[in-house]
Amino acid sequence: MIPLYVVAPPRLLMLDLAGPIDAIRRANVEQTAVRFDVLHVGPRSQVMTSIGLMVGRIAPLPPSLPDDAYVLIGGSVTTLSLAGDPDAARDRRDEAAISAWLAATVRPCHTLITICTGALFAARAGLLDGFSCTTHHQVCAELAQLAPRARVLEDRLYVVDGRRYTSAGITAGVDLILHIIAQLTSQAHALAVARYLVVYMRRTGSEPQLSPWLEGRNHVHPVVHKVQDAIAGDPARAWSNTALAKLAGTSPRHLSRLFREHTGLHVPDYRNRLRVALAHELLGQTQLDIERVAERAGFASARQLRRAWSRWYATPPRAARG
After folding, report:
1. What's the gap between Cα 206 and its chain centre?
2. 59-60 and 54-55 as β-strands: parallel, antiparallel, unpaired?
3. CATH superfamily entry for domain 210-322
4. Residue 13, exposed/middle/buried by CB under 10 A (0-12, 13-18, 19+)?
C-alpha cells in the first residue's frame, strides 16, 4: 500500500485533483499489485474550490510522513493572483503554511508530485532546487524566480527528475499520473485506466502535441482497439499477425484489412511507431545507453532503432535526451 497525501490548498483547482485522483482510484480497481491509500490533508478542514464548491473532510497536515509516502499538491487560483477576494489574506496565510509544512516534512525519500501551479508551493519550500521541473505556462517565470536553482522547462507537459514529478496545466496532471501508474504497475494497467477515462493513451511529458500513443485511435472499431491495446500494453513484445489475429478472434488477413481501414496504418508500422515512442520516453527519462534502450523498446539492435527512428524524427535519438 502506497500512502498518498493529497494536499488541498485554498481555492484549489478542482480538476487538478479530481482528474489525477480519479485515475488513482481506477488504478486501485484495475489491479491489486500496487494499491494507493489516499488521504486528503491541508491547513483547514474544508476549502472553497475554484468553481465555488466547498470540499470538506480534509485532515490536518501531519507532523511527519512515512518513508514511502507520495505527496501530491494541485494548483490554486490564488497563486494565479486572484484579485478582489475578501479572503485573500487568509488564503495567503494558508498557502504559506503549506509551503512551510512541505519544507519541514518532505524528505529525499519522499516522492513529490505537483499539478499545474502546485509547483509554486514546492518552489517556495525549496524542494525544486537542483531539479528540472515545469508548471502552467502562465507562471513559468514566477516559478523560475521562486526556484532560481531549478531548471524550469516551459515546453513540457510534465517533467520527471528523480522523485520530483511536476506537470503543466490541468489535463497534463492526468498524463503525469498515468505515467506514474505505468511506472509502478505496467503500461497495460495504465492503458486500462486511460481507456476508462476515455483517454485512449497517455501523452508523453516531452511532447507538447499529441503523442504517438494516440495516433490511429480516432475510431470506434472494438476489434482494432483490442489489438491496439495489446500492442500498446507491451510494445517490445514480438507480436505476430497470427498472434494478434487470434487475440482479435479473426484471420490475419482480415485483421490486416481492418487495421489498415480504421487506422490508416499497417500493423507492423503501428507496432514500430509505438516502439519508437517507448524509446523516446526511455531516452528522455533515463540514462540508459542506446543499446539498452533499443533492447527495452523491442528492437534487435541500436542500428535497427535508428533506422525506425529516422522514419518519424529528423534528428537522431541522442537529441531526445532530457
Report:
1. 11
2. unpaired
3. Homeodomain-like (1.10.10.60)
4. buried
Q: How far apart are CA 164 and CA 118, in angstroms?
A: 12
- Residue 87: all three cell numbers together: 479572503
Compute the Cα dihedral for 89, 94, 98, 100 and give only its sign: positive
Give Cα separations from 88 to 80, 97, 200, 252 (angstroms). 12, 14, 40, 63
Q: Where in the chain is the domain with CATH 3.40.50.880?
A: 2-184
Where exactly does CATH 1.10.10.60 map onto the chain?
A: 210-322
Contact of 157 with 205, CB cutoff 8 Å: yes
Are 236 and 278 within 8 A, CB to CB?
A: yes
Statement: 2-184 belongs to CATH 1.10.246.80: no
Whole-number Å distance between alpha carbons of 69 and 185? 17
Distance separating alpha carbons of residues 317 and 283, to the nearest angstrom: 8
Provide the terminal-to-terminal Cα distance of the chain, rounded to the nearest Å. 31
**Exposure string for 271-281, b = 16+ CB within 10 A, e = fewer:** bbbbbbbbbbb
With 0-12 / 13-18 / 19 or more C-beta atoms within 10 angstroms meaning exposed / middle / buried, residue 4 is: buried
In order along its 322 residues, the chain shows pLDDT tens digits of 999 999 999 999 999 999 999 999 999 999 999 999 999 999 999 999 988 899 999 999 999 999 999 999 999 886 544 556 677 788 889 999 999 999 999 999 999 999 999 999 999 999 999 999 999 988 999 999 999 999 999 878 899 999 999 998 788 899 999 999 999 998 888 888 988 888 755 556 555 434 677 778 777 788 998 999 899 889 999 999 999 999 999 999 999 999 999 999 999 999 999 999 999 989 987 889 999 999 999 999 999 999 999 998 889 999 888 6
- The H or E element spanning position 2 is strand 2-7
Residue 224 near residue 259, CB atoms below 8 Å = yes
